[in-house]
Design brief:
about 325 residues; alpha/beta; six-stranded parallel β-sheet; about 20% strand
């Protein structure tokens, strides 16, 4: 499908609570739609007043939104958007009402598994590992995201002087942290660092290491202390984020098993994805299903302490979701 510039652009509204990992799912899908069909994208960030934030979605009303929220309904004389793409629990009461309030003008897409009023949305784009079914459900491997070859190249420009001359193989290590299903203790982090460092040294390569907001400080310190001697870059969170640059320059990507988003984004690059084990806190069946899916598609394998290379067709699930949105809107 190619963009046809003569068509009137779609008005697309992206709605989330503003957290980067959440917003990027809706924004990534909107940008994929834009690459296929002329579109004007508007980002809206909302939050509920503290007194109502934990209320059930069924009891929430727009007047309960915090005054800092962006307006999500049109002002007088303005039209409803053609396409509403929302992500996250905070958006559910709003998404569920849009079709009714817009008089059916707005096509409503919700990413992730809503777990509430699933029939209220025109399309749900959900991770296959969540095992949600229905006539309005599109299951994809992982979640929608913003990673494309073009965006990776753009994001790499500011880091070229530090990364372009690093020795191969270049290893990007994407480290998560504590969640409901996993933990990253300082002891486990130290063990991971030793295994990663041993693999990089044995291959004569370099390391590009980044942590998430959930990475415990003790784990960061343990890994940094053990890996700082290697050629490469360890991002300490200061300055511009090198995440896209790391993915762009990497020959291998190591991802902790706690993040579905990072695994799916890494698999879109076509580089070997090695899954790093975490400390389990409870059964994590959905992550196991995702990793099994990635293995079946040739993208990922458990990290075995070596940097074996392999090839596979890069995943492009966000584009597949965008095509489905346009088909359902009869704009394909």
């Amino acid at each position: 499908m190619e963009v046809e510039p003569h068509r009137a652009p779609l008005s697309v509204q992206v709605v989330s609570d503003g957290r980067t990992g959440i917003e990027n799912q809706a924004l990534g899908l909107a940008e994929a739609v834009q690459r296929l069909f002329p579109s004007d994208i508007t980002i809206r960030r909302i939050r509920w007043r503290a007194a109502f934030d934990k209320w059930p979605s069924a009891l929430k009303a727009p007047w309960m939104l915090d005054p800092s929220s962006d307006a999500v309904t049109p002002a007088a004389g303005e039209a409803w958007p053609d396409l509403w793409i929302a992500t996250g629990r905070a958006t559910l009461p709003l998404s569920a009402a849009v079709r009714r309030l817009s008089g059916g003008r707005t096509f409503v897409v919700q990413t992730q598994d809503p777990r509430w009023r699933n029939a209220a949305y025109d399309l749900i784009v959900a991770p296959a590992h969540d095992r949600i079914e229905g006539p309005n459900v599109l299951s994809i491997t992982g979640s929608p995201h913003r990673v494309t070859a073009e965006r990776l190249a753009e994001g790499s420009a500011a880091f070229a002087d530090r990364l372009a001359l690093l020795p191969h193989p270049r290893v990007a290590a994407l480290i998560g942290g504590r969640s409901r299903a996993f933990d990253l203790t300082d002891g486990h982090a130290a063990d991971l660092a030793d295994r990663i460092g041993g693999a990089v040294e044995a291959a004569g390569g370099s390391l590009m290491l980044t942590f998430s907001r959930r990475t415990p400080e003790a784990a960061k310190a343990a890994m940094t202390a053990r890996l700082a001697h290697l050629p490469g870059l360890i991002w300490d969170g200061a300055g511009a984020n090198p995440y896209f640059a790391f993915l762009n320059y990497a020959d291998h990507v190591l991802v902790t098993e706690d993040s579905a988003n990072m695994a799916a984004e890494a698999a879109s690059t076509g580089r070997p994805v090695h899954i790093l084990p975490m400390v389990p806190l409870k059964p994590a069946d959905k992550f196991a299903r995702l990793h099994a899916d990635l293995r079946e598609r040739g993208a990922a394998r458990p990290f075995d302490g070596t940097l074996e290379a392999w090839r596979y067709e890069p995943l492009d699930e966000t584009a597949r979701a965008a095509r489905t949105v346009l088909e359902r809107m009869k704009r394909a």
